[in-house]
Amino acid sequence: MKASASDERPRKIYNPVQRDAATFLETSEETGGVRTLAELEVAPGGKVTPHYHLTFSERFKVLEGQLTVEIDGVHHDLGPGDEAVAAARSVHAWSNPGEERSLVRVELRPGSPGFEQGLRVVYGLAADGLVRKNGVPRNPLHAALVLQMGEIRLPGRYAVLERVLGLLTRVARWRGVDRELERRYL
């Protein structure tokens, strides 16, 4: 029996810039596309800015610590056992407002191999010192590819960047940047 690609990759990845970790419990491949399941260890002050995904929902369940999740403008202050769901296309952001690490189970439905790949790439770029303090890749071609992989879209005034990001993604593919990131981080 041939091992799948997910068997060859580490389950736990670490982002030294944002000081958080993600452990893949179930990948999209392993669940036949039904879901992606991961645990995030979020450092105090850790956060993700407002965004949305096109085709999958994101469920957040706090196992330890605190997490504030904003979904379509509504704040949810979560503690252990609490959960919130950001449906596909709903604008959401999250942060750890506490002074301790938070442990959060995140479930994507359906599963998203692109999101999994994008997370691996951005954590790899962070380990190589190639991201800004907020975790965004310094190279705009890398940033465009990661956003495209994870079906991550930016709301509001940043939505005007969609065309630019689409162009950057095409340029990155034409130059082979996508294949370079895959070789290095996937």
CATH architecture designation: Sandwich
String of helices and strands: HEEEEEEEEEEHHEHH
Radius of gyration computed on alpha carbons: 16 Å
The biggest sheet amounts to: 6 strands, antiparallel
SS-based class: alpha+beta
CATH superfamily: Jelly Rolls
Tally of separate helices? 5
The coarse overall form would be: globular
Uncertain runs are none
Counting structural domains, the number is 1
State the name of the first-level CATH class: Mainly Beta
Indicate the CATH topology.
Jelly Rolls
Q: Spatial order of the strands in the main sheet?
A: 1-2-3-10-5-8
How is this fold's topology laid out?
Elements: H1 5-8, E1 12-15, E2 20-26, E3 36-42, E4 47-53, E5 57-64, E6 67-71, E7 74-78, E8 83-86, E9 92-95, E10 102-109, H2 113-127, H3 140-149, E11 152-153, H4 162-174, H5 177-185
Antiparallel strand pairs: 1-2, 2-3, 3-10, 4-9, 4-11, 5-8, 5-10, 6-7, 6-9
Helix pairs in contact: 2-3, 2-5, 3-4
Short description:
This protein has 186 residues and is of the alpha+beta class.
What does this structure look like?
With 186 residues, this protein is α+β, with helices and mostly antiparallel strands. It has one domain (5-185): Jelly Rolls (Sandwich), CATH 2.60.120.10. Helix content is 27%, strand content 33%. The chain contains five helices and eleven strands. The strands form two sheets. Strands 1-2-3-10-5-8 form a six-stranded antiparallel sheet, covered by helices on one side. A five-stranded antiparallel sheet has the order 7-6-9-4-11. Strand 1 and strand 2 (20-26) form a beta hairpin. The radius of gyration is 16 Å and the shape is globular. The model has no long low-confidence stretch (mean pLDDT 94).
